Amino acid sequence: MKKTLKKLWFYIEIIIFFPLLIPYYFTTEKELIKQDNQKWVEYLSIQSKNLIIQLITLLKNAPEYRNLYYFRLKKGNLTAKIISQILKIIYRPCGYFFLDESCNIGGGLFIQHGFSTIIMADMGENCWINQQVTIGYKDKTGRPKIGNNVRITAGAKVIGNIEIGDNVVIGANAVVTKNVPPNCVVVGIPAYIIKRDGEKVKQELR
Ligand SMILES: CC(=O)SCCNC(=O)CCNC(=O)[C@H](O)C(C)(C)COP(=O)(O)OP(=O)(O)OC[C@H]1O[C@@H](n2cnc3c(N)ncnc32)[C@H](O)[C@@H]1OP(=O)(O)O
């Protein structure tokens, strides 16, 4: 009985959240949405192989994903943009995770607990961002450019007109205000390199 009710509730939820898929059918941003979806499904271990079920599960259960989805739709064609703006009135975006419209962000972005996270920067593909992360301006001189496969972990601040190379990991609570070369792990305030190309090091950022 409990199993049947659970299944019934699952289908009811699918029906409730189905309208959120309407802009997906119209948008020019399908590829990016699919790339994001692939990462979220992998990291959150969503079992279904069906794209529709995957999207609905994420839009229903992961508020940060919903913000990312709206962000993608806003970058696309007018029809999908208008539909998503109307849907936003009913299916509210979450208020604690902010992804600025001015950013260009490659596919495959994953947000793990987006509480108090603000992203104002261009980013490459397959990045991972945690909670309490700020990526943005230090002053009026500009904001960061983040490479591909970059992981910015809990509490880190990445600010100013700097470049973060591909395959960089920024440790918890680090403050990064200088360029970070590719393939590095950085930690601390101010951030310094603890690993470069897999080797343990201790190097200042320049
Ligand atoms: C609710 C949740 O769980 S959400 C998930 C939250 N978790 C995160 O965000 C994970 C963040 N991960 C980290 O900060 C990790 O420590 C990493 C990725 C920076 C480094 O991990 P590793 O490469 O395994 O480094 P390792 O643990 O070997 O540490 C190397 C050195 O750096 C130091 N170190 C590691 N992380 C940090 C950090 N965030 N700040 C300062 N120093 C650090 C270690 O103490 C160690 O110092 P030692 O050589 O003097 O002993």
Automatic annotation (TrEMBL):
The keyword Protease does not apply. Gene3D superfamilies: Hexapeptide repeat proteins (2.160.10.10). InterPro entries: Hexapep (IPR001451), LbH_SAT (IPR045304), Trimer_LpxA-like_sf (IPR011004). Keywords: Acyltransferase, Membrane, Transferase, Transmembrane, Transmembrane helix. The chain crosses the membrane at residues 9-26. It holds the Pfam family Hexapep. It comes from the Bacteria. SUPFAM superfamilies: Trimeric LpxA-like enzymes. Belongs to the transferase hexapeptide repeat family. PANTHER family: SERINE ACETYLTRANSFERASE. This is Serine acetyltransferase. The lineage of its organism: Bacteria, Bacillati, Cyanobacteriota, Cyanophyceae, Oscillatoriophycideae.
